[in-house]
Amino acid sequence: MSTSLIDLRSDTVTLPSDAMRRAMASAEVGDDVYSEDPTINRLEARAAEVFNREAAIFVPSGTMGNQIAIKLHTRPGQEILCEERGHIFNYEMAMLSWFSGCIVRPIPAPLGILSWDLLAAKIAPPTYYVAQTGLISMENTHNMAGGTVTPTATMDDICVRAHEHKLPVHLDGARVFNAATYLNKPVAEITRNFDSVMFCLSKGLGAPVGSMLVGSKDFIAAARSVRKALGGGMRQAGVLAAAGLIALEEGPKRLHEDHATARLLAEGVASIPGITIDLATVQTNIVICDVSSTGKTSTEISAELKSAGVLAGTVNPQLIRFVTHLNVSPVQCEQALAILGKICQSRA
Questions:
Q1: Spatial separation of the C-alpha atoms in residues 226 and 265, rounded to whole Å
Q2: 83: helix, coil or strand?
Q3: Closest CA to 305 of 335, 340, 276
Q4: Residue-wise over 51-88: b if at least 16 C-beta within 10 A, else e?
Q5: Residue 227 CB-half CA count within 13 A
Q6: How far is CA 164 from CA 105, 120, 157, 161, 167, in A?
Q7: Which of 63, 84, 126, 313 could form a disulfide with 321 if both were Cys (CB 3.0 to 4.6 A apart)?
Q8: What is the spatial distance between Cα 150 and Cα 281, in angstroms, rounded to a whole number?
Q9: From CA 18, how far away is CA 250, in angstroms rounded?
Q10: Rounded CA gap, 307 and 203, in Å?
Q11: Domains of the chain: residue spans and CATH
Q12: The model scores a pTM over 0.85
């Protein structure tokens, strides 16, 4: 894509910084399948430290990290409870069924924020002829709910009560540093009661590739075997870990900027006739709005935006999504708003 485009499709489009590129070029490497890549080892140790966990493992993608956790926490024939718009349910190719032999029991939740009451009502009774609940999976921030944040007290309550029912809880924390920024708390504090946590080094943190899975020493040891089964055993991957280390150390410091830019964008969108948005959902760097009253579909608006140099994502025919990130400035968001306003003035 041309660098002149204003790319608001996702924070996955971020470009590595000059410092990352230099670190990648000079990275000390070895064979990670033999646990001999020193840069990978440093990244894993640092990730475990940041999350106050015993161990961590580097994986190529968030999806792989989630699926490794699901495999280790469940057995075939079980159900997984998650919010109905959750990533593991909608955007991971039904891999939890293919690889782990599980199904999802989706639960609708206001703003995508699950509570123990909502979950408890869906836990399977101890009856031999129904699939038993094997895992609760949460997502913070919640992507398709608009980047909303589950409060720490709510997460803690769910984990404690789930553990009383002998149920593990996994966190899809692809953007958990955004959640920590919003809550103004360390990630270790807001994730302390989860059995496992996956987080992305890409997206808002800015690395070009990679995610991490953190947990106990035994859990991560088992995860290495599952990662290999999924084709994630990499060799001289320190060139990627070098960028990941910079992302982990420096990326969280500037996420508040993305949140402020998203707020600017959301308030501007709210002023455009025909577009509706619940500003209460705009807590981090994701803006999802309803364009159905413009007389155009989200696909049509997205196409017109693209022709004018702005890239946006679509959720369904009614909803369009904008995501702010380190490569989009407030000035560019103002430009995108002006273009969007002109498009919406021209009814289909």
A1: 41
A2: strand
A3: 340
A4: bebebbbbbbbbbbbbbbbbbbbbeeebbbbbbebbbb
A5: 23
A6: 20, 12, 11, 5, 7
A7: 313
A8: 11
A9: 13
A10: 25
A11: 6-13+254-345 (3.90.1150.10), 18-250 (3.40.640.10)
A12: yes
Token output for 319:
């909803």
pLDDT tens, per residue, the chain with 348 residues = 345 899 999 999 999 999 999 999 999 999 999 999 999 999 999 999 999 999 999 999 999 999 999 999 999 999 999 999 999 999 999 999 999 999 999 999 999 999 999 999 999 999 999 999 999 999 999 999 999 999 999 999 999 999 999 999 999 999 999 999 999 999 999 999 999 999 999 999 999 999 999 999 999 999 999 999 999 999 999 999 999 999 999 999 999 999 999 999 999 999 999 999 999 999 999 999 999 999 999 999 999 999 999 999 999 999 999 999 999 999 999 999 999 999 988 765
| Residue 181 vs residues 155, 175, 328: alpha-carbon distances, Å | 16, 10, 19
225/180 Cα distance (integer angstroms): 30
What tokens were used for 251? 């990326």
Q: Work out whether strand 211-215 and strand 286-290 pair parallel, antiparallel, or are unpaired.
A: unpaired
Q: Give the pair of three-digit tokens for residue 28.
A: 């000390």
Alpha carbons 106 and 79: distance in angstroms, whole number: 10
Closest CA to 136 of 151, 147, 145, 124: 124
Question: Cα 345 vs. chain centroid, distance in angstroms?
Answer: 34
Is the Cβ–Cβ distance between 134 and 73 less than 8 Å?
yes
d(CA 160, CA 311): 42
